[in-house]
Amino acid sequence: MKRFLSDPGNGPLDCLLELASVAILVCAGCSGRSVTADNPVVGMIPPRMAVAENAAEVTRTQDPDSTVKQVGHVDGSDKPLFDGELSEVAAVVNGTPILVADVLEPFASNLAKAKLSLSPEEFTKVREQAIRQSLPHMIDEAVLADSALSKLGAEQKEQLEQQLDTFFSQKLEDVKAQQGVGTLAELEAVMQQQGTTLSNVRRAFGRQQLAGQALMLNMPTTPVVTRPELLAEYEKRIDEYKQPAQVKWQQIWIAYDKHGGKSKALGVLDAAIAELKNGTDFSTVARKYSDGVMAKDGGNWDWTQKGSLADEEIERMLFELNVGEIGQVVAGKQAYHLVRVTDRRPDRIKPFEEVQNEIREEILAEWKSGVEADIIKKLKKDAVITTMFDAS
C-alpha cells in the first residue's frame, strides 16, 4: 500500500511530517467549514521559506517566480553535496517540476557517505539508481497534488496556504524543544545533518497534504466486509493461525565461570536444591542463586514454543514435564540448569473470533491499496509527465 505520510521517527523531519494528518483537519476546521468533494479546502504546494537566526516565524519568499536552489546537505569540504545540481529538474508533472533535491532527500545521508568512498563515476551510478528508485513515488504524489489543486479557487488556495504556514510555524516551536535548540537556524543545522532543510520539509509537508486530500476526495465509500467473506478468508489462511504447543517456565542458571569453575558451581546448585526441598518457593530460590538474565523476575520466562530454544535437552524436558514439576539438573556448556514448568498450551488453531478483526483490517487495507492504485493510474492517464530519463 502506498503511503504519502512519512512514518514517525526521532528526527525533526519525522516530527514535522507526522503532523501532516493533523494539519489537514485543523486547517479544514479553521473557517468553520467541513471538507467535501464539492468544497475542497486544501493547501497549495508551499513555497520556499527563509530562515533567519532571530526569526520569530517562518515566512514565505515574496517572489514566487524566483529560481529555488536547495542545499540539502554539505560534506566535510563545505561544498554542496551535489555541486549545484540540487535545483536540477528530475521530472515535470502537468507543468510542475520535481527537483532532484526532493527526490534524493530520503537518500541524502547515505549519499553523503558514498560520495566520500566512491569514484565520481561510481557515485553518479549510485545517485542515478536512487533517483530511479524514488522518482515514481514522487510522480504519483505530484499527480495527486495537481488533481487537488485543479479543483481550487485562488481564495481557497491562499486561505489554506496561510493556515498551513501558521500551523507549521507553531509546530516548529515544539520540534525545537524536542531537539534541544533555541532558534530556527540551529534547527536548520540539525536538519542539514540529517540531509534536509526546513524549506524541503515545508514543501514536502504541503505536497503530502495535497496528495492525501486528493485520495480522500476520490475514495469511494468503504465496503462492508461480511461475516461469510471473513470466514472464507479465515479458512483460506488457516495455516497462518496454527500455533504449536507452548510453555511458561522458570529457570535457575548457575554459571561455571562466575563461581570459579564447574565443581564450585555445583556447590551453589546443591544449596539451591536444598532450599527447594525444604519448601522454599522456586521464584525466591531463583532470585537468590540464579545467574540468568531472568533471575530478578524469579527466573520466569514467558510463553515459549517448540523449536525456539537452542538447548534441545532443556526444550524436550519442558514439553514433557507436568505443570508445577521441576526437571532434572542439566549440565550445559556454560552452566547448570534447573527448570520448572508453570503453565502450558497444547497445539491449537487461533479461533475465528480471535482474528476476525485482524482479517477485516487486512481485507480493507488491500482494498484501499487497490483503489489508490486505480485512482493514480486514472489520473496519470490524463497527465503530461516527462522525466530526466525519457531520452535515455
The profile of the biggest β sheet is:
4 strands, antiparallel
Q: Assess the beta-strand content as a share of residues.
A: 5-15%
Lateral strand order in the biggest sheet = 7-6-9-8
Q: What number is the mean pLDDT? A: 78
Low-confidence stretches: 1-84
* Helix percentage: 40-55%
| Total number of beta strands | 11
SS element count, helices: 13
The number of domains is 2
Shape: elongated
Structural class label: alpha+beta
CA gyration radius, whole angstroms: 30 Å
Q: From N to C, what is the helix and strand string?
A: HHEEEEHHHHHHHEEHHEHEEEHE
Distance between the termini: 29 Å
What does this structure look like?
With 392 residues, this protein is of the alpha+beta class. The protein folds into two domains: 12-223 and 365-387, no CATH class; 245-346, Chitinase A, domain 3 (Roll). The chain has 13 helices and eleven strands. The chain has helices at 12-17, 20-29, 100-104, 108-117, 120-149, 154-179, 184-193, 198-218, 227-236, 262-277, 282-289, 312-318, 352-381; strands spanning 49-50, 59-60, 89-93, 96-99, 242-243, 246-255, 300-305, 330-331, 335-345, 348-349, 385-387. The chain has a four-stranded antiparallel beta sheet with strand order 7-6-9-8, with helices on both faces. Strands 4-3-11 form a three-stranded antiparallel beta sheet. A two-stranded antiparallel ribbon has the order 1-2. Helix 2 crosses helix 8, helix 9 packs across helix 13 and helix 10 (262-277) runs antiparallel to helix 11. It is elongated.
